[in-house]
3-hydroxybutyryl-CoA dehydrogenase
Amino acid sequence: MTGKIETVGIVGAGQMGSGIAHVSALAGYRVKLYDISPERIEAGIATISGNMARQVSSEKLEDKERQKALGRIAPANALEDLADCDLVIEAATEDETIKRKIFAQLCPILNPEALVATNTSSISITRLASQTDRAERFIGIHFMNPVPVMKLVELVRGIATEDLTFDTARAFVESLDKTITVAEDFPAFIVNRILLPMINEAIYTLYEGVGSVEAIDTAMKLGANHPMGPLQLADFIGLDTCLSIMQVLYEGLADSKYRPCPLLVKYVEAGWLGRKAGRGFYDYREDPPVPTR
Ligand SMILES: NC(=O)c1ccc[n+]([C@@H]2O[C@H](COP(=O)([O-])OP(=O)(O)OC[C@H]3O[C@@H](n4cnc5c(N)ncnc54)[C@H](O)[C@@H]3O)[C@@H](O)[C@H]2O)c1
């Protein structure tokens, strides 16, 4: 048995929130997209429209379907607009304080039966759930970036997540034509527990002068058959998100092997957050992007 999901609320209209809105609308759900910054909602909807147009040009989508899907996405000017959602997916900045504040404001607005999910890359689902009025109906639904392209979604139960919540979340994710992997609730789950230490090590390799940005990325692309280099991937994820995940691993597992590289800290402090900021390990204001080190 699974619960009925018709309307999906999304909190955070950045890279991930707009991607989740994209695939949910294409699968036939009504979507309400909220962000603390109204410009991000506008930019998110423009990104979705552009990405769907690309899917039409590459004949992966019919134009009629694109128009219908876009018509299912409504901007939400306030959290209150999410009151009638059956499922709300939080995809705001990877910062526990921000996420806790969102849940504290959001939960009293929602129907008591509504499910709440977080797209966090690393933060404890159990801890986030315990801050809400519905730990039984709270779950981690961890999409990968870019959402329309990546097949995998990690499902992560908190200690109190009910079977009905899990089964409903699973049915929802499967309806988006994604493949599920189930991860236990430990820092960074499966994908980022393995991926982020590799990226952090690549940044140490740069920091210690073992290789340049270009040398490191070329080495891993051609020497390990990775589709993109680890520094390019870090830029793609967002360096603020990478740093937050390393901090969660470092603090959550209390092991010095997860110590975030000081160079990663420096880039984040500079606001060089990667592709979304126009500059990270590469400068995206140039075409093709130029390494910054
Ligand atoms: N980038 C990735 O590769 C990736 C992959 C999987 C999961 N995630 C997770 O998804 C979440 C979002 O990441 P992203 O890459 O989309 O980041 P992003 O920086 O592109 O977007 C974050 C958005 O959250 C908004 N925001 C901040 N505070 C808010 C608040 N109080 N209320 C509403 N909106 C708020 C920001 O305005 C911004 O638009 C994070 O938890 C991240 O760990 C990221």
Q: What stands out?
A: The chain has a mean pLDDT of 97. Residues 7-183 form a domain with the Rossmann fold fold (CATH 3.40.50.720). Residues 11-17, 35-37, 40, 91-94, 98, 102, 119-121, 142-145, 237-238, 241, 276 surround nicotinamide-adenine-dinucleotide (CB under 6 Å). The chain has eleven helices and ten strands.
